[in-house]
From TrEMBL:
This is Ketoreductase domain-containing protein. Keywords: Oxidoreductase. Transmembrane segments: none annotated. Gene3D superfamilies: NAD(P)-binding Rossmann-like Domain. GO terms for molecular function: oxidoreductase activity. Residues 7-185 form the Ketoreductase domain. Belongs to the short-chain dehydrogenases/reductases (SDR) family. The keyword Glycoprotein does not apply.
Length: 285
């Protein structure tokens, strides 16, 4: 780390899962961690673990601005921004309410982009900083019923590639983290979004939605696919590797099964992929 680097780490979405594990992991290794969540009352254990806790909703300009200003007032600049907050708005492209689609992009993409904009001026001034964007292995392929979520993660990966080039000369590194299946509250949120959006009973996608909900539940709970899942600490460790490296890799795929799936997708044509999806999901008709 350069001598003038700030060791202050700002993490979004720390109420559970990957954000919580990352804040905990980095604080335990001596980093100055600002753990944030839209409901700061969910962060008491992280406060006890040495984190400073703040309210931050990535869809709310005032709360994003005030969290960044607080870290800058204490340390001059955010040293590391971990853009982690996000969720999956599952459902079919036709049926998901367009306002829910807007919320999905507002949280996963525009909030993340705005956080980058807010921390960059002081990082550039210091000529030092790291931005870690939590994308997904799902930026490399698409599961049916997850189109909107995958679109947000593809957007996160795309804008991270652009940003990496744009800010490298100012001493700022940009890293993409692409977790595979990680056992967190993510599956619950995705299936409850599906419940909200499942459309009329007996509608054209009813069987598909039912199978999608069951597959998601089984992958994140006790089904056979869940054995491929990793713990949130695996992602926290990858983030630590990225933030401590003097020359971090542009992207880190996390979990062995994520490597296998992404490689498999690269070797398949689109038609081969669709055929594989038909073995997993009933094709709506
Ligand atoms: P999680 O346990 O559900 O955590 C999601 C976090 O995001 C929660 O703290 C949630 O806060 C927060 N969040 C949601 N909307 C927010 C907003 N508007 N402002 C601030 N925070 C907000 O799920 P997770 O698995 O840890 O997910 C973390 C990240 O990893 C997400 O970006 C997700 O897409 C990505 N990811 C997860 C997996 C996986 O399999 N788990 C795989 C690939 C990528 P609340 O408590 O307030 O809802």
């Amino acid at each position: 780390m350069p001598e003038n680097a700030s060791r202050a780490v700002l993490v979004t979405g720390c109420s559970s899962g990957i954000g919580h594990a990352t804040a905990h992991h980095l604080a335990a290794r001596g980093w100055t961690v600002y753990a944030t969540a839209r409901r700061p009352e969910t962060l008491t254990d992280l406060e006890a673990a040495g984190c400073t806790t703040l309210g931050l909703d990535v869809t709310d300009e005032a709360s994003m601005r005030s969290a960044v200003e607080r870290v800058e007032a204490d340390h001059g600049a955010v040293g590391v921004l971990v853009n982690n907050a996000g969720y999956s708005q599952s459902g079919t492209i036709e049926e998901v309410d367009i306002d829910a689609v807007r919320r999905q992009f507002e949280t996963n993409v525009f909030g993340l982009a705005r956080m980058c904009q807010l921390v960059l001026p002081k990082m550039r001034e210091r000529r030092s900083g790291k931005i870690v964007n939590v994308s997904s292995m799902g930026a490399n392929f698409v599961f049916p019923g997850g189109g909107y979520y995958h679109a947000t993660k593809s957007a996160v990966t795309a804008l991270s590639h652009a940003l990496r080039f744009e800010v490298k000369g100012f001493g700022v590194d940009v890293v993409i983290i692409e977790p595979g299946l990680i056992k967190t509250r993510f599956g619950d949120t995705a299936t409850s979004a599906l419940d909200d959006e499942k459309g009329e009973a007996g509608g054209p996608y009813a069987d598909f939605n039912a199978k999608l909900a069951a597959a998601t539940k089984s992958a994140y709970e006790a089904g056979p696919l869940s054995k491929l899942g990793g713990p949130p600490e695996a992602v926290a460790k990858a983030i630590e590797t990225a933030v401590t490296a003097s020359r971090p890799k542009p992207r880190y795929l996390v979990t062995p099964s994520a490597h296998a799936l992404v490689n498999q997708r690269r070797l398949m044509t689109d038609r081969m992929w669709d055929a594989m999806m038909r073995t997993q999901f009933p094709q709506p008709k």
